[in-house]
Every structure is written in C-alpha cells, then in structure tokens.
Write a sequence for this structure.
C-alpha cells in the first residue's frame, strides 16, 4: 500500500490498466462483429467468448483491489489525523485524559492545551521502576526540606521566647529596683522628719532652760505681765505615725526577689508561709534575717507581729540557710 502511494505517479503502473482497456475494446469489437455476422459458425465464437469473460473477470478483480486500496489509504489518513493524546503547549507534556490535564493545570497554572496525534506509549516495567524511584527521591527530598524548615522555625521561636523572657525579667527587676528605691527614699524622709522634730524639741527645751536660769539670777520678778517666753514650756511630744500595712521585699537564695504587702499585726509566720508557696530557689529549709541591722529571726520570732519586730512600714528580708 505504501509502495503504491509512493509510486502512484510513475508511468509503469498505469500501463496494465491501459492494456486492460484495450482488451475490453477488442472484446467489444469482436462481439459486435459476431453480432453483425451471424453466419459465422458457433464453434469459432466459443473460444473468443471465454477469452472475453476472463478479461472481464480480471478487470473486475482490479477494480475491487483498487477500491480496497483506496479504503485502506483513507483509513490510514483518518487514523493519522485523529487526536490520540492531549499536549500542554507551555511545557510540552502529554496526557491521556482530561482529568490529567485538569490536574496539571491546577498544579502548574498552565492554561494552553491542544490535541496531539502522537500516542502515549505504555510504560514498561523498567520505566515504572524508574518513575517510582524518582518519586520516592522527590518525596524524601521534600520531607528533608520540611524537617529542616521545622527545625529553623523551632529555633527561631525558641530565640524569640528567650528574648521575651529576658525582657520580662529585666522589666521586673527594674520595677523591683524602683520600688526598693522608693521605699528607701520614703524611709529616709521619715527618719529625717523625725530627726528634725526631735531637734526642734531639744532646742525648745534648751531655750526654756535658759529662760529659767535668767529668771532666777536677775532679781525679783517684774510685776508686769509675764512675757510668753517666761511661761513654762511644755515638752512637745510628736505622735508616732501608725502604719496598718507593711511592705516587704524578700531576697531568695538564687538572687530573685519577692515583693508583697502584709498587715502590720500579722506574724512573721505568715511571711514564711508566703515564701514557701512562691519561692523559686528550691524547697530546702531556710531562715529569715535583716541586713541593717543584722538580725536573724528565730522560731520564737515567728509568732511575733511584724510591727513588734521593727519591719513596719517597709523592710528587706533575706533568705539564708537555717541558723
């Protein structure tokens, strides 16, 4: 069939057809002569008739073969023009079905597709194994990349958490230091006020003594109205300020501090219980002491109120080893 298509333009192929046509013409002429000359004997016409029938049969066979050849050529041409696969115009990849095309479009974002006459060959066992190996390597590579990304994310989160913890600790320490400074300033101011009041009382007493001394050593008293300075001066008593609460700063053995307010009448045991519930330096036994002046509180002091122990209005306690 391919040979016929390739050599359809050559002269030699058409010659048998011309010879058959000429034979058909001769047969027709002879048959006409036989019809016009009925006087010829029947014995002479029989061989010629057999030859004519053979020629006709051969011409019919040639026509049948030509028809079959044309049909086969038409089928091959139609098969060659029929679409057997779908192709992506952007990456050149071929697909068997529209579902594969839709999946590829969603995955890659490609939008241009066309039909292709090239048939996708079925995969051999070797091709399947090779594709399976590549797929496993790709999955393994993606898993490694995901694990690496998770590790980096975990490290970054840990850094941020530590940084936030350090900032929170620094802010807390700064607030505690400011509170200590404020309490110390308040205590210093109160002591200064008490000292100045005491000084004023002493000066007033000294002036009263001096006035009395002058009165008894200068002669008889004058009948005039006594001056205010000659009147006896009563001692000025400055009432002590009463505090209802006590603010304590507790320094733990690990360097951290606890700050809380207690009632002035609460016992030192309440402070000890608060430390046991909120301490961060372990659960070892401990004692409490003050630095200025240095005083270590015993078990007997635990039942005394904070006011009686001199911890009002504010004080700093230190957690130490049991004494």
């Amino acid at each position: 069939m391919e040979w016929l298509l390739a050599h359809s333009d050559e002269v030699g192929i058409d010659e048998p057809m011309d010879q058959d046509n000429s034979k058909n013409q001769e047969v027709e002429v002879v048959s006409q002569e036989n019809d016009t000359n009925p006087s010829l004997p029947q014995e002479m016409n029989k061989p010629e008739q057999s030859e004519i029938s053979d020629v006709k049969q051969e011409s019919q066979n040639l026509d049948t073969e030509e028809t079959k050849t044309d049909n086969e050529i038409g089928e091959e041409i139609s098969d060659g023009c029929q679409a057997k696969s779908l192709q992506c115009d952007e990456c050149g990849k071929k697909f068997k079905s529209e579902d594969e095309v839709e999946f590829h479009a969603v995955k890659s974002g490609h939008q241009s597709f066309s039909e292709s006459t090239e048939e996708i060959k079925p995969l051999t066992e070797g091709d399947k194994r090779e594709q399976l190996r590549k797929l496993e390597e790709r999955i393994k590579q993606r898993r490694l990349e995901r694990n690496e990304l998770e590790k980096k994310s975990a490290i970054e989160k840990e850094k941020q958490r530590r940084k936030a913890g350090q900032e929170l600790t620094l802010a807390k320490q700064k607030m505690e230091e400011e509170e200590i400074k404020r309490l110390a300033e308040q205590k210093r101011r109160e002591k200064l006020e008490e000292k100045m009041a005491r000084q004023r009382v002493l000066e007033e007493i000294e002036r009263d003594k001096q006035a009395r001394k002058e009165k008894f050593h200068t002669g008889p008293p004058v009948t005039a109205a006594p001056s205010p300075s000659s009147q006896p001066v009563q001692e000025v008593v400055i009432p002590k300020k009463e505090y209802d609460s006590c603010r304590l700063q507790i320094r733990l053995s690990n360097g951290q501090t606890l700050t809380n307010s207690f009632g002035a009448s609460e016992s030192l045991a309440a402070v000890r219980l608060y430390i046991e519930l909120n301490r961060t330096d372990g659960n070892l036994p401990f004692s409490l002491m003050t630095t200025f002046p240095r005083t270590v509180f015993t078990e007997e002091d635990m039942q005394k109120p904070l006011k009686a122990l001199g911890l009002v209005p504010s004080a700093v306690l230190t957690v130490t080893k049991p004494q």
Summary: The chain has six helices and eight strands. Residues 31 and 275 are 140 Å apart (CA to CA). The helical segments are 2-6, 11-36, 42-81, 98-108, 125-217, 268-278.
